[in-house]
């Protein structure tokens, strides 16, 4: 085997070991939280109310609002050039 391959595999192994060792406390926190949390959550509303404002809808709102702002900008610009 080439020296570069051996060094690369060693570095990948070290990176994976550090990732696992440094994330063990976080995984224990998540595990303890899941064990103590009851899985039946009391909800006041239907499921669609909680999931209705996700990233896709926020992006759609941003696109629509930016179109309106652009339209207002063009309207004001045309009015300005026509009368002033």
Number of strands: 0
Global shape? flat
When the domains are counted, the total is 2
Unreliable residue stretches: none
**What is the distance, rounded to the nearest whole angstrom, between the alpha carbons of the first and last residues?**
77 Å
Q: Helix count, per DSSP?
A: 3
Helix content: over 70%
Overall average residue pLDDT: 83
Structural class: mainly alpha
Please outline what is shown here:
The protein has three helices and no strands. The protein has 84 residues and is an all-alpha fold.
Compile the SSE list and pairings.
Layout: H1 3-36, H2 47-51, H3 55-83
Structural features, described:
The radius of gyration is 27 Å and the shape is flat. It has helices spanning 3-36, 47-51, 55-83. Helices cover 81% and strands 0% of the residues. The model has no long low-confidence stretch (mean pLDDT 83). By secondary structure, it is mostly helical. The chain has three helices and no strands.
């Amino acid at each position: 085997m080439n020296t570069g391959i051996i060094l690369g595999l060693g570095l990948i192994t070290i990176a994976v070991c550090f990732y696992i060792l440094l994330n063990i406390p976080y995984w224990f926190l998540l595990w303890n939280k899941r064990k103590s949390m009851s899985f039946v959550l009391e909800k006041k509303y239907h499921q669609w109310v909680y999931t209705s404002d996700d990233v896709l809808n926020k992006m759609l709102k941003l696109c629509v609002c930016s179109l309106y702002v652009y339209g207002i900008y063009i309207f004001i610009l045309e009015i300005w050039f026509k009368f002033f």
